[in-house]
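Hi X.,

You mentioned you wanted examples for the new student's onboarding notes, showing what a folding record looks like when two proteins sit in one file. Here is a clean example. The first protein comes first, with its sequence line followed by its structure tokens.
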Amino acid sequence: MENCIFCKIIKKEIPSNIVYESDSMVAFPDINPSAETHILIVPKQHIGSIQDISKENGQLLAEVYLTASKLVSDYNLTNNFYKVVVNGGKAQHVPHLHFHLLGGNLKRMV
């Protein structure tokens, strides 16, 4: 998508501190964190929202949670509070499906 901030990050048109990358997704810290650890997990394929998911996206969604599991270990959140959140509708500031890994002290709900 032409004006999508996440698509521009994925294409490396906008700099970001990418902490994980595979053929199908990237992960990077949220610029406005809601927790001590706040990592966005973003599929490289532009999927507008949760309503745009199809059966063909099953493997991609499994990889999202495998990536979240890896990041929980990488950020030493295993014995701490953490959650994975997906926003939709008006709560989704960027219209590109993405997941928030939040860990530690939460400042506010995402």
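Then the second protein repeats the pattern, sequence line and then tokens:
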Amino acid sequence: MNYAERLKNVTVLGAAGKMGSGILLLTAMEMTDLASKPENKSRQFVLNAIDVSDQALGGLMKYLKVQVQKAAEKKIVPLRKVYEDHADLVDNKDIIDRYVADVIGIVRPSTRLESAYQSGLIFEAIIENPGLKVKLLSQINKNNAKSPWIFTNTSSIPIHEVDEKAGLGGRILGVHFYNPPAIQKLVELIRADSTQSELVDFALVFAKNLGKIVVPSNDFAGFIGNGHFMRDALHGISEAGRLSAEMSFAEAVYTVNRVTQDFLLRPMGIFQLIDYVGLDVCQYIMSVMNGRLGTPCGKVSPEVLHSPLLDRMISAGVRGGQRSDGSQKDGFFKYEKNRPAGIYDPDTKRYLPVSAFQAACDERMGPTPLPQLNWKSAVKHPKKEAALEDFFGKLAAMDTPGANLAKRYGERSREIGLKLVSDKVAQSEEDVNMVLLSGFYHVYGPINKYFKPVTSNQ
């Protein structure tokens, strides 16, 4: 079965969700581009968009129309070539409208799982629930005579586990898109020992056609991205707990968040990133990883990935995450116009205004190295490597609370990255760095020359 034939009938499970909608958008455009080629004129392409709610699917179709139109406007020149035989399509608007109609025309929204029984390829992008994934994929596998290939977008669950429990016979591959899939370039590709090589070959072509950066990850819970992020987040939470002995909890959260953003040159602080992903999502990913540490090699790990603070926040109804319009929900921070304005105090169960303690915290931390550098300016810097070496060289020589906290944090991040390689989660240091660079938008990888082991009195 060739590439186009495999994509002739495709299903996306969880199509109306944050990840599923982006995967559906990219797949719909790839299938439409295939359908426009002369050799595929006789093929009818169908993309089943399956979700539990008709209302959500209605919103999905509106989203697709808007996003496809934006994409069409950016590639009007190649589209003119595609539709050059259509004399009725003269203006750019006519061509764009036709392309949008063609893309939307292959999508079949449905709330019935039976729609997937004729597909040769299934994208699974439902919630991160191992039992539910196995249940749905088992049902499809038993009722689909085409022995479909399964691409799961799981960000933490080992692929071999789903394969074995759903009885897929190696016809499953982890294809972990990053949020939002339509924009993020990174895709982690995770194969189990049993995964058929043809799936991997196909996925590499598919990802290349979508313009993605592919990084292979070995089949360990959490893979590279969450393997680093969850441990990095736990370190930030631990540092805030340690600082809470000498300042208020809100001040500690602000301090660690600012250090990780302004001293480490990240696009957002660690507590903002936890809010962005969702406290409950982070808690769940940690629980999935925590129960599977050491697999699949059979080693028993003494490491525990769990945060009582996250438990406490979630039990108080503080969850973070985004609304359907993309705006940020309140988590550790209270957001006004998507900017942090307050910090949650678990004792009083209310948000304290950042303005009440920001100046004092900044003074206590001390300044960042001069000349000033931030994430945005570092990303665009014409001599980025030299600028980073200068910035972190000066940071290493500083003996302020903020600088020492940053050095300890940078070394812990490096340690996590190196452990992912030594534990054979990642195949190389370069792969770890690429995931953090392209998936988390860091300006430098965690395994670097900027941070060396720090002493305990820092």
